[in-house]
Specification:
The complex is a heterodimer. Chain A is mostly helical. Chain A is built from 11 helices and no strands. Classes of the chains: A mainly alpha, B alpha/beta.
Chain lengths: ~270, ~230
Amino acid sequence: MELLSYTFVQYAFIGGISLGILAGLLGPFVVQSKQAFASDMFAHVALAGIGGALLFGAAPWWGALPTLLLVSTLIWFLLESETYNPEALAMFFLSGGLALALAFVHIARDTVFSFETYLFGSILTLRGVEVVVMGIITVVISLLILHLWYPLIGATRDPHYVIPHRKTPQLIRLLFFWILAFVVWIGIKTIGGLLIGSLLVIPTLACQTWAHSFKQLVVYTTSVSVLSVCMGLGVSLYIDLPPTSLIIGCLFLLFTIQLIFRILKK
Amino acid sequence: MNNSAITVRGVSKVIQGKTILQDIDFTLEAGTLTSLIGPNGAGKSTLVKLLLGLDTGYQGSVITSANERIQYIAQQTNADHYQLPLSVQEYFSIATTRLHSKRKMSPQYTEALEHVGMSADVLKQSVDSLSGGEKQRVAIARALLLEPTILILDEPLAAVDYASRQGLYELIRHLQQDHNMTVLLVSHDVESVIPLSDQILCLDKTLHTQCSPAEFDTQKHEHPQGITHRC
């Protein structure tokens, strides 16, 4: 408990819980829209944005956001055109983002910079301003998702969905991609770009057979996500293992527990 | 007085040199039930997409009367086996909740379910837990919530067991008459839909038959490959 009095630990919990709430809220939408790879795609694009920010002497994490929003808009446009296979597009942006990031860092000649921070997260090094921004984004996005609840479910579930009394839901899907971009942006700073996808997807996998409605599922996934972050972070303060690996480890543990319960129930 | 809900004139569609539809001409009169029958590959689903405005790449014209509200019920498939849970209430709300409206529609949900012979208890159940017939009843109830003037059903009972089909076809007919809707029913189940229909359209790339049930000769149309020639 003494450890909780440290500012960096408090920041880590606030940032982690913010991410847990967002990932829990958004995860079911990501899974049902068959965009489970989208978070990885966005994370690699974010790395390119980080590399670009280094090149121009800007703060790396902040530089990732405009890149994310721009490329997420491009990805939305390409998917809506229904010309390209979504999985092939994912590989295009995954590899392209990483290649650009490596090139930018090489050109910037920044010998101090390490991608590892953004690949695997640095939740214990969050600063006050970053935590405040994460908190604001969490509140805004949560309210947005609640306000657009049914149109968002429809737009991510059914490609032929039409918002009542409106023509098409493309803008709802664009908003969905922007929300995902913000969540990945927070994720690369906390648990890392390679693992944010796990926080989005695994709670949904763990809870989907226990819920009878979408609302119930989102309540469960948000609980699992926040619980995993708190458990993983809490344990990492006492044992010498990276917080990110423990958070993901908790997710896998919870998934395994529910699987065992389900098998025993049958 | 023009009483037509949808008028189709000279509609043709060709994809990569292959004729899908050729010179289709027909009228759906308001407040009637029309059955669209034909063999696999006849162009029925393509024609439905044109009527719904989902496909605009065709020659000819599809004219829908002003103020018509079209609802569409697709065939149930098992394609989305990995869909996440959704309660019947959420299923209705997705279709009826406007972007910026918080209007509660629970009483209408109960009434819509009663119209299709189901109780309000089903609102809390997951859609996936329902049988094929129940799913289609719920789909019809959802369509009714939007107060359609035109209802298009594309093979609505293909995934429903045979024993339940007759009751569901009769339900569709009763709802059509009670709500004075224009209904277009696409089906392979010739024997079941013909007696319910006001008009029969027999399609095989072109419209071979357009007649009333009394004029329709079922024997000429019992062919291993399905419907082929004119009335």
